[in-house]
Amino acid sequence: MNKYGFIAVDIDGTLLDDNDHFDIKRFNKDIALLQQAGYHFIIASGNSYDALTTIFRPCPLVKEFVAENGGRIVIDQKSIYNRTHSKKTLHQVLSFINEKLPKPDILSLSGESQTIIANQYRDVPVPYYPHHTYFTSLEEINEPIYNLNVGWAKQKMPQEAIQDYVQQLNRYCSAIQATYSGAYGIDILPAGVNKARGLKELVEKYLNGTLAQVVAFGDTSNDIEMLTEAGCGIAMKNATSDLLKVADKVTVNDNNHDGLLTEIEQLFLS
């Protein structure tokens, strides 16, 4: 693995187990060793930067983030790249969801400083949104919006149905890129936004590297571009079938058995 200088990892279903936990002590030890060996360790996630800073508060060595599925890049707490939705697009997409799709169990907007949840879901527990508020009308929102997320977790909507909703959304509006996010949800991003493009922006413009030097790890559909375009794309054992088809390699263990850290240790630290 000497030809690679960058390791990009997804979070949900990759680093985190199904209970949203990871071995922090082992993780911090591995990151320290990787950085000593000259590797850049990059978080590439569909989560908001707000959520990521909460997850990695006990991990001070993690400083490079591709958040919002590539729509926001942060290095050492400084935002260097942002792609956001227009209000016009948000109005169009919300109308389509309300008129054409089954009622979601949650609908939220990922903003610059917090998650903004549709007021009708005020009673839904949202422990995964560290800072959040509620909206009734888009006119109440005065910050940039990176991502519109809808989910059907309570209904346990079949993945095939959700993938169909993704296709409907992408056919309906050319200004967006909808993608299955795992956990019964859809991320609706500005057109052209994905993890591969965000990673390319970070690595080539700011870290003096190329995507060919990246080893990327992921578990679901929003990781497809990243694993396809990276020098080496590694899918988790628990990955969705569409991601397994494009991966160069598959981890021996799944996310509930430290599959990511075990693979990193074997490839880079043994």
UniProtKB/TrEMBL annotation:
One of its GO terms (cellular component) is cytosol. Gene3D superfamilies: 3.30.1240.10, HAD superfamily/HAD-like. It comes from the Bacteria. InterPro entries: HAD-like_sf, HAD-SF_hydro_IIB, HAD_sf. Coiled coil: none annotated. GO terms for molecular function: magnesium ion binding; phosphatase activity. PANTHER family: HAD SUPERFAMILY HYDROLASE-LIKE, TYPE 3 (PTHR10000:SF8), PHOSPHOSERINE PHOSPHATASE (PTHR10000). This is HAD family phosphatase.
